[in-house]
Amino acid sequence: MKLQYSMAHEPLLDPATRDALAEQMKAAGIQKVWIAGFYSGKMVDPDELKEAKAFAESYGFEVGSVTIPIGHPGNALNPDDPDLDLEIPKTWHYRVDNLGETVYFCGAIDRCLIEDNGKAASLLREAGFKEVFLDDDLRVGNFNEFIEGCYCDACLSEFNGLYDRSETRESLMAQLTKKINPELAKDWVAFQCDKITAVMEATDREGVQAGIMVMHFGDERHGIDIPAIRDRIPDALFRVGELQFNDGSFTKPYAKAEEMLGIAYHLNFLDKRLAHSESTIFPPRSLKEHNLVYKAKMAIASGLENVLFMSGTWVLEESYWKAIADALPVLRELDAATAGAARSYPVHLAYGTHGAYAEPIVPTSLPVLAGLPVKPVRADQRSEDGQLLLFFGDYELTAAWEKKLSSYREVIFDRTAALKNKVALDRLMPGAANLKIWDYKTTTRPTEEEILSLQRRIGEDDGQFPRVVDGSNIGLIWLKETGKVILYNLLETENRGTVRIAGTQHAVSLKPLSFATLGGDGAWTEYDTQVELGG
């Protein structure tokens, strides 16, 4: 476990407060800081960056750099600072959406923008930075299931020339929205992904290791082709995307479960040593201290070694550093107990085939809430470890998925998936005893009854994988090599349940928002940190 923090450089220059800040970060176990050096086309003064870096290093911190490579659509850095300069350079041009509307504060990816990011990487290298992490504005779409991109005249002309097409904004939008031309969708997605990867390649120059912070469930429909980036930049750093940045969303059990699914999904593509968490508060002070600690526990439980705290240009206040410092012994204990053990997910949740299919972006959190060792898997990903496939929701049973069905001991389709894929299932089911239909329509916000119904539907299996057999809102991650599981309470109240491991049932009781490990022999260790509710 390496705790890290992304921040603006100014607090490291203020002689009145910077020593106190550095001491607080040291007490909280921070080992590395990432300093923002390039904002939407504008470089921070190199001498100031050098001074900030030198100060951080004087306290023993490792130091990397973060950039905002194309600009954020809106003030997504610090709403407390209305004077924050978010305007892009005059030499760039704005991204245009599929309605022809300008996406302000966000540049379209063209040759000038790519070159400017490359120059920024060179200047950061000259200032002594060896790593440059590109913030998650490096995408061509917002958090939704749709295929977006830049529809400006220049980008449309470039696309038509490269792919020998003659599309207009209107014709392209109509075909993508109605999903009537999959080959066009794949071409458009590939075009956008090449632009994102080009920015990465411009940054990844001699002496600089580039990284990309990936949006929650971000994929090709947003211009982010993780396999292509890894192929062209083998040592690229990645931040796996999370979403729930404030108490309003994060306190809901399904929201925490969706974050865990998002982490597991992105880790399908990645080498864990290059992966970082996104333990973020946004807007300022909108996430309680104990929830930030919970985010760190989620990252550790998922197997992430790099726990990255973020807060835009707003600097975490003393109460947050104290909460992390107080929790540090427990975080280290959880890390020590689980580090090095592979996370096993024998239950797979079908998550489409490829981003170009523009299927639902967030799968149901039901299997997590029901206590199954589950991860989302696409048809184009390896799935040799899968025993049970849950085909839930509005996802298409493509030819790629059909080829994989026989590798699962059981495949369960919910009502939505069964109706969507009725023709294919009518053809396949007579000769495939492992295909089953569950006459239940899963939802994105599962109820208690839905959780219990899934547990009953799976029934008493033959013990091939552990799971929660009684109780709800207890997440489970299997450490198969050690014979243990990690349990985590998704509720802000005490939570009781029964866990089945290797044919033996164990009654468990978890404190509010606590994590624990449980062995097949009943060995139990709880990793509890202070939770202050209310207010």
Structural overview:
- This protein is of the alpha/beta class and 535 residues long.
- The protein contains 16 helices and 24 strands.
- The strands form five sheets. Strands 1, 2, 3, 4, 7, 8, 9, 10, 11 and 12 form a ten-stranded mixed beta sheet that branches.
- α12 (366-369) links the parallel β13 and β14.
- α10 runs parallel beside α11.
- The chain is globular, with a radius of gyration of 24 Å.
- The mean pLDDT is 94.
Task: Quickly describe the structure.
The chain is an alpha/beta fold.
Q: What is the number of helical segments per DSSP (H or I, 4+ residues)?
A: 16
The oligomeric state of the chains shown is single chain
Classify the beta-strand content into a percent band. 15-25%
Number of strands: 24
Main sheet, how many strands, which sense, barrel? Answer: 10 strands, mixed
The average pLDDT value, as a whole number, equals: 94
Taking pLDDT < 50 over at least 5 consecutive residues as the criterion, the unreliable ranges are: none
User: Based on helices, strands and strand pairing, what is the structural class?
Assistant: alpha/beta
Tell the overall outline: globular
End-to-end C-alpha gap: 31 Å
Helix percent reads 25-40%
Using only CA atoms, what is the Rg?
Answer: 24 Å
Give the secondary structure arrangement, pairings included.
Layout: E1 2-7, H1 18-27, E2 30-39, E3 42-43, H2 46-58, E4 62-68, E5 94-96, E6 102-107, H3 111-126, E7 131-134, H4 153-163, H5 169-178, H6 182-203, E8 209-213, H7 226-232, E9 237-239, H8 247-250, H9 253-267, E10 275-276, E11 279-280, H10 289-302, E12 306-310, H11 318-338, E13 347-350, H12 366-369, E14 374-377, E15 388-391, H13 399-402, E16 410-413, H14 415-420, H15 422-428, E17 435-437, H16 448-458, E18 467-470, E19 474-479, E20 484-489, E21 495-501, E22 504-510, E23 515-519, E24 524-527
Parallel strand pairs: 1-2, 1-12, 2-4, 4-7, 7-8, 8-9, 9-10, 11-12, 13-14, 13-15, 15-16, 16-17
Antiparallel strand pairs: 2-3, 5-6, 18-21, 19-20, 20-23, 21-22, 23-24
